[in-house]
């Protein structure tokens, strides 16, 4: 006999409704006190706020169900509900250096509920954990590289999305009405609120979006693409945003400073978009051994062929927060060239003499912050077309409770890419 256990609310409300995942007619329940349903043929369908059963089975006589037996069965089944809401795990950053795994009730607030499958760990997440971040509001669930499945839709929603759709989440909630939003530069919106910084992000079994944000922030994962790979859409979109700001010439040499995950994505993107001469520089010779790189420069080794001779780079992208690297980029960049200011700098100083080189050499310094929804769409298509291979970067997949370990391995440069698998248990 197939036995399924589920805590339900005994009090019934509403009329019969159709289950979106099947033809069965169901009735909604609202909590009164826990009740365990046992018996062959029970179909339990959990839609967070609504718990549904086959109406045919519901019409059966339930007088014989005993509450005390149900409590024991509940522990065995492992389904924990309180007042009709399930508990979910989330990793909360309470203050710099203090990441705590908690179980909290799934509050039934109207909006889009995403069952998170994967969440990538970004350098900004590591920075937030170690020393905080400009945009961070504590306590906070980190994570903005999110993929998953729609578990619940807002009440009365009639848009394009359906329960069960696989989605990648553009991480910014924006107004949609200001001059920046209307010109597809919503990353600059004054009302921008970012998942993992201003709003709780993806290091949680579920992620909530406001009713008005779903159509703006959700993007379909292309057919055949893994949800894990789709977490790279957001960082790749940031690279697209940066490269669109450079003033590219036919014979330009591009120098990418930093051979980590973002440096790799910048390199692969530059190859795809037609750059002929690309050099990657880093202070870590081990990272420069990545087989995807064709030309490299050890930033600290004077014996290595210097990229400034005979052809200076006319375009430089900084994928590092080092002020020293920024100063060096100004000094070696060709006159009239461009420097992509892609990473926020660590606190430091730069000599005025070096800054003045921007003036004398007529350098173009292009800032790039975050990404746009359109950039995320383009990134998903590039990933679906095979832009990134498994060999291009070292990756580790971790359970939620191993988030701190994942951040440590990223900080020590043992990994290029770390992903939290919300279905992984150890």
Report helical residue fraction. 10-25%
Q: Give the termini distance in whole angstroms.
A: 31 Å
Whole-angstrom Rg = 25 Å
How does the helix and strand content classify structurally?
alpha/beta
Mean pLDDT: 81
| Number of helices in the DSSP assignment | 12
Morphology call: globular
Instruction: Estimate what percentage of residues fall within beta strands.
Output: 25-35%
Number of strands: 25
Residue windows where pLDDT falls under 50 for at least 5 positions: 1-85
Q: Characterize the biggest β-sheet.
A: 7 strands, mixed
Please supply descriptive tags for the structure shown above.
27% strand; 426 residues; alpha/beta; globular; 7-stranded mixed beta sheet
Topology:
Blueprint (H helix, E strand, L loop, with lengths): L6 E3 L2 E7 L6 E5 L4 E3 L7 E4 L2 E4 L1 H4 L8 H11 L3 E2 L2 E11 L2 E8 L6 E10 L1 H9 L8 E2 L3 E8 L13 E4 L2 E2 L5 H4 L10 E2 L11 E4 L4 H4 E3 L6 H4 L2 H11 L9 E5 L3 H12 L4 E6 L13 E3 L16 E4 L4 H10 L5 E4 L10 H9 L3 E4 L5 H12 L10 E4 L4 H9 L5 E5 L5
Parallel strand pairs: 18-19, 18-21, 19-20, 21-22, 22-23, 24-25
Antiparallel strand pairs: 1-4, 2-3, 5-6, 7-8, 8-9, 8-11, 10-12, 10-16, 10-25, 12-13, 13-17, 14-15
Give a verbal description of the structure.
The chain is α/β, with parallel strands linked by helices and 426 residues long. Helix content is 23%, strand content 27%. It has helices at 55-58, 67-77, 123-131, 179-182, 214-217, 227-230, 233-243, 261-272, 323-332, 352-360, 373-384, 403-411; strands spanning 7-9, 12-18, 25-29, 34-36, 44-47, 50-53, 81-82, 85-95, 98-105, 112-121, 140-141, 145-152, 166-169, 172-173, 193-194, 206-209, 218-220, 253-257, 277-282, 296-298, 315-318, 338-341, 364-367, 395-398, 417-421. The strands form seven sheets. Strands 10, 12, 13, 16, 17, 24 and 25 form a seven-stranded mixed beta sheet that branches. A six-stranded parallel beta sheet has the order 20-19-18-21-22-23, sandwiched between helices. Strands 7, 8, 9 and 11 form a four-stranded antiparallel beta sheet that branches. The chain is globular and about 65 Å long. Mean pLDDT is 81; it is low at 1-85.
């Amino acid at each position: 006999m197939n036995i399924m256990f589920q805590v339900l609310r005994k009090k019934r409300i509403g009329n019969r409704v159709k289950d979106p995942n099947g033809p069965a007619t169901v009735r909604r329940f609202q909590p009164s006190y826990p009740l365990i349903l046992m018996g062959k043929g029970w179909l339990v369908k959990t839609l967070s706020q609504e718990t549904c059963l086959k109406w045919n089975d519901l019409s059966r006589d339930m007088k014989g169900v005993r509450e005390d037996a149900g409590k024991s069965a509940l522990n065995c089944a492992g389904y924990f509900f309180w007042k009709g809401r399930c508990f979910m795990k989330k990793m909360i950053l309470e203050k710099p250096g203090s990441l705590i795994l908690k179980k909290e009730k799934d509050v039934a607030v109207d909006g889009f509920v995403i069952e998170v499958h994967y969440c990538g760990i970004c350098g900004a997440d590591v920075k937030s954990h170690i020393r905080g971040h400009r945009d961070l509001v504590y306590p906070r669930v980190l994570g903005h590289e999110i993929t998953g499945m729609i578990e619940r839709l807002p009440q009365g929603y009639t848009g394009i999305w359906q329960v069960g759709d696989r989605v990648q989440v553009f991480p910014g909630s924006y107004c949609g009405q200001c001059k920046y939003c209307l010109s597809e530069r919503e990353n600059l919106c004054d009302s921008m609120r970012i998942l993992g910084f201003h709003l709780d992000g993806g290091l949680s079994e579920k992620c909530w979006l406001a009713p008005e944000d779903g159509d703006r922030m959700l993007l379909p994962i292309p057919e055949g693409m893994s949800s894990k790979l789709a977490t790279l859409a957001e960082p790749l979109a940031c690279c697209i945003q940066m490269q669109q700001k450079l003033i590219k010439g036919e014979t330009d040499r591009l120098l990418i400073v930093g051979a980590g995950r973002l440096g790799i994505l910048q390199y692969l993107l530059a190859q795809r978009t037609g750059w002929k001469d690309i050099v990657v520089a880093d202070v870590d010779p081990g990272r420069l051994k990545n087989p995807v790189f064709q030309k490299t420069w050890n930033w600290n080794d004077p014996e290595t062929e210097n990229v400034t001779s005979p052809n200076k780079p006319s375009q430089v992208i900084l994928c590092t927060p080092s002020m020293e690297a920024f100063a060096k980029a100004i000094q070696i960049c060709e006159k009239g060239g461009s420097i992509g200011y892609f990473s926020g700098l660590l606190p430091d100083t730069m000599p005025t003499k070096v800054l003045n080189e921007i003036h004398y050499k007529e350098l173009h310094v292009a800032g790039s912050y975050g990404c746009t929804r359109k950039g995320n769409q383009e990134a998903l298509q590039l990933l679906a077309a095979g832009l990134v291979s498994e060999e291009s970067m070292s990756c580790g997949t971790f359970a939620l409770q191993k988030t701190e370990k994942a951040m440590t391995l990223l900080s020590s440069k043992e990994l290029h890419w770390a992903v939290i698998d919300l279905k992984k248990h150890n």
